[in-house]
Amino acid sequence: MKTECKWFYVCPINYFTQEGKLDKHWVNDYCKNNWNNCVRYYKEEHGIYHPDNMLPDGKIDKNLY
Which of residues 65 and 39 earns the better pLDDT score? Predict the structure, then answer.
């Protein structure tokens, strides 16, 4: 079974984490394991718009650009 989100390599969460703008727990807790609980994943799969600065739990981080 694949444990990494299929959107991981194009997801802004991955980018923000690599840039040091987000703590690695976002990738570890959502992208690598629990992506079925990620709001971003759900919206992507259903074609629902979501801003790049939306965190996996659905909160908007106004500090991310």
Answer: 39
